[in-house]
């Protein structure tokens, strides 16, 4: 089997190649492309590929940019880290996907599906166009200020001035950088969806912090971190399940 692998990340490419080799053995030949231009050159260079494994994000664009410029009759299995809503779009159009991080079993299941469903299937260009639209949508605009209803009127708080947020039943308590507390009539889950994830992180089920107002971070027990926030007197703790992602968010 001759396979084209469209993958910009070298570790992911090596892992995928090893998984394919374990299943296909010496029958596997492959070409690796990390960019749109490399992918176009591979598909235009006279190679006869049986199957394409494609990440969506490449070094200089997306794999959809390749499919726009090259006429294909080759089955594609997408390897991507995107969420289930987008992945379902692949499923309804008969193209399989593998969600990163993938395993040997995931690869083998996809190859079995290829063997039974995709050997003669032509890629539906309308489906690819629909998916490209999803990727081309404008980034979500997060709220720059929140409306707080007070007994004597309405208060507008700039999100940049919020130090941290704590769950308060179906409400949320907002602490600003001056140590003042405000109650927002929105639960913490819905509130997090309106906040910029580059600025705010939910460190546990009931607390959200603003990266710009962290004053100190210390190790704590059981893979947890203790965090002091501007305007908040007591330390806040990451949960054992969020600590790893929190470190990545901080760039540690």
Describe this protein's structure.
- The protein is α/β, with parallel strands linked by helices and 252 residues long.
- It folds into 2 domains: 2-136, Rossmann fold; 145-250, OB fold (Dihydrolipoamide Acetyltransferase, E2P), CATH 2.40.50.
- 32% of the residues lie in helices and 31% in strands.
- It has helices spanning 10-24, 36-44, 63-69, 84-92, 104-118, 125-136, 188-193, 243-250, and strands spanning 2-6, 29-33, 51-54, 57-58, 61-62, 76-80, 97-99, 145-150, 153-158, 162-168, 171-176, 181-184, 200-204, 207-210, 214-219, 225-229, 236-237.
- The protein has a 5-stranded parallel beta sheet, sandwiched between helices. Strands 12-11-10-14-13 form a 5-stranded antiparallel beta sheet. It has a 3-stranded antiparallel beta sheet with strand order 15-16-17, with no helix packed on it.
- The two termini are 42 Å apart.
- The relative contact order is 0.08.
CATH class (first level) name of the largest domain: Alpha Beta
How many helical elements?
Answer: 8
**What would CATH call the homologous superfamily of the largest domain?**
Response regulator
Radius of gyration (CA) equals 24 Å
Secondary-structure-derived class: alpha/beta
How large is the share of residues in beta strands? 25-35%
Please list the strands of the largest sheet in the order they lie side by side: 2-1-3-6-7
Rounded to the nearest angstrom, the distance between the terminal CA atoms is 42 Å
What is the second-level CATH architecture of the largest domain?
3-Layer(aba) Sandwich
Instruction: Give the CA-based shape.
Output: elongated
Helix percent reads 25-40%
- Give a count of the beta strands, DSSP E runs of length 2 or more: 17
Sketch the topology as an H/E string, one letter per element: EHEHEEEHEHEHHEEEEEHEEEEEH
User: How many domains would you count in the coordinates?
Assistant: 2
Mean pLDDT: 86
Largest sheet: number of strands, sense, barrel closure: 5 strands, parallel
């Amino acid at each position: 089997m001759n396979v084209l692998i469209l993958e910009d990340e070298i570790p992911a490419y090596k892992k995928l190649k090893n998984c394919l080799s374990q299943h296909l053995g010496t029958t596997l030949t492959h070409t690796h492309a990390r960019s749109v231009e490399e992918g176009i050159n591979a598909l235009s260079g006279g190679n006869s590929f049986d199957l394409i494994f494609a990440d969506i994000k490449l070094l200089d664009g997306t794999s959809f940019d390749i499919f726009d410029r090259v006429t294909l009759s080759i089955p594609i299995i997408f390897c991507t880290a995107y969420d289930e809503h987008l992945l379902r779009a692949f499923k309804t159009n008969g193209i399989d996907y593998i969600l990163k991080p993938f395993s040997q079993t995931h690869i083998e299941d996809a190859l079995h599906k290829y063997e039974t469903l995709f050997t003669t299937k032509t890629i539906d260009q309308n489906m690819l166009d629909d998916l490209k639209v999803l990727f081309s949508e404008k980034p979500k605009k997060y709220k720059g200020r929140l409306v707080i209803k007070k007994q004597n009127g309405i208060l507008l708080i700039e999100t940049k001035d919020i130090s941290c947020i704590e769950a308060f039943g179906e409400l949320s308590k907002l602490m600003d950088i001056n140590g003042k507390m405000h109650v927002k009539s929105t639960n913490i889950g819905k509130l997090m969806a309106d906040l910029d994830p580059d600025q705010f992180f939910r460190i546990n089920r009931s607390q959200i912090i603003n990266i710009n107002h962290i004053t100190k971070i210390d190790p704590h027990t059981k893979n947890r971190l203790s965090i002091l926030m501007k305007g908040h007197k007591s330390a806040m703790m990451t949960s054992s399940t969020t600590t790893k992602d929190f470190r990545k968010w901080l760039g540690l």
